[in-house]
Amino acid sequence: MKPIIYDYTLERLRDWMKENGEPAFRADQLFDWLYAKRVERFEDMTNLPKGLREKLDDQFRFAALHEITRLESKDGTVKFLFGLHDNHAIETVIMRHNYGNSVCVTTQVGCRIGCTFCASTLGGLKRNLTAGEIVAQVVTAQKMLDRIGERVSSIVIMGSGEPFENYEETMTFLRIMIHEKGLNIGQRHITVSTSGIVPNIYRFADEDTQINLAISIHAPNDELRSKLMPVNRRYPFADVMEACRYYLEKTGRRITFEYALIGNVNDRPEHAQQLAEVLKGMLCHVNLIPVNHVPERKYVRTSRDDIFEFHRILVRNGINATIRREQGHDIAAACGQLRAKHMDSMAR
């Protein structure tokens, strides 16, 4: 198939223009049409020569996604189920906050990490997304917000999949998002989350960006983490923490540790105390996430009292921690839930 126009950074578009006998500034005009004006057809790019528009139309495609389902929550959360050219489906979520609109994007179709409490891993990994398929999620969200005069103010790469196993495409996506001629999202308003792919934590530390890093840990020790996250057998907890220390030393930027609380599994006071001891002295923040019930899994939510007790133990030990506010509960907004329902209906 023809490549998606959103796959190309501005620098790559300038190279393409030169290779096709066009001045480099045409790439800047094209970029403006894509991300500032957000048009959907080359023929509408009226300041580009007709011949160039025809050439672009012949060599690239716009249609990266088509909307299958859109669900809107009472709290303003919007969840999209998008279809891809090969009949796979992915999810994207717009979350409304008092500080602006955040978009949660997906980087893979499915996931192979295998976290035992997550719907994203059901069915395994199908394929990586291209940078353009990730970009298109944000552009589509922004087009929806355009209708009400609002904009995407932040991005979290926390949807289905492991972004650090699709590293090159994820970084290309990020470069397009932060470019001043693109959507111009502030780097400190973007967070990428990984389950702990150690080599690429080091690599990301060396990228010299201001983009935030979040690490999913979900347990304070190797034994429990391996039960919940099979990836821990490949990248043990101690190696993950060592990579995090390198990141902190190299960047001076705080790390967020994501910890999904699962009833009577990893939410006991002794787990909180052990986690506090592991993280003591690190520039970090712990985001406590009451686990969403997934019908295919047997885990239950931690009780409200136990959530607050876990939080109190961390804070008492000097660990900065918050409890994530739940959004979109009434529309199955947790990663993979809507896609899992869609896969089930397609299989019938």
Automatic annotation (TrEMBL):
A single Pfam family it belongs to is: RlmN_N
Where are its TM segments located?
A: none
Binding of S-adenosyl-L-methionine: at which residues? 161-162, 193, 216-218, 292
* Gene Ontology BP, a term: methylation
- PANTHER family tied to this protein: 23S RRNA METHYLTRANSFERASE, RADICAL SAM CORE DOMAIN-CONTAINING PROTEIN
Q: What general EC class does the enzyme of this chain belong to? A: transferase
Q: Which InterPro entries match?
A: Aldolase_TIM (IPR013785), Methyltransferase_A (IPR040072), RlmN_N (IPR048641), RNA_MTrfase_RlmN (IPR027492), rRNA_lsu_MTrfase_RlmN/Cfr (IPR004383), rSAM (IPR007197), rSAM_sf (IPR058240)
Q: What else is known?
A: Reaction proceeds by a ping-pong mechanism involving intermediate methylation of a conserved cysteine residue.
Q: Where in the cell is it found?
A: Cytoplasm
Function noted in UniProt: Specifically methylates position 2 of adenine 2503 in 23S rRNA and position 2 of adenine 37 in tRNAs.
Q: Which family does it belong to?
A: Belongs to the radical SAM superfamily. RlmN family.
The protein's name is Probable dual-specificity RNA methyltransferase RlmN
Listed under catalytic activity are: adenosine(37) in tRNA + 2 reduced [2Fe-2S]-[ferredoxin] + 2 S-adenosyl-L-methionine = 2-methyladenosine(37) in tRNA + 5'-deoxyadenosine + L-methionine + 2 oxidized [2Fe-2S]-[ferredoxin] + S-adenosyl-L-homocysteine; adenosine(2503) in 23S rRNA + 2 reduced [2Fe-2S]-[ferredoxin] + 2 S-adenosyl-L-methionine = 2-methyladenosine(2503) in 23S rRNA + 5'-deoxyadenosine + L-methionine + 2 oxidized [2Fe-2S]-[ferredoxin] + S-adenosyl-L-homocysteine
Q: Where is the Radical SAM core domain?
A: 97-330
Q: Where does [4Fe-4S] cluster bind?
A: 111, 115, 118
Keywords (alphabetical) are: 4Fe-4S, Cytoplasm, Disulfide bond, Iron, Iron-sulfur, Metal-binding, Methyltransferase, rRNA processing, S-adenosyl-L-methionine, Transferase, tRNA processing
Q: Which residues form the active site?
A: 91, 335
Mind telling me which HAMAP family this protein's record contains?
RNA_methyltr_RlmN (MF_01849)
EC numbers, comma separated: 2.1.1.192
Cofactor(s) named in the record:
[4Fe-4S] cluster
Recall the GO molecular function terms of this protein's record.
methyltransferase activity
What does the Swiss-Prot or TrEMBL cofactor note state?
A: Binds 1 [4Fe-4S] cluster. The cluster is coordinated with 3 cysteines and an exchangeable S-adenosyl-L-methionine.
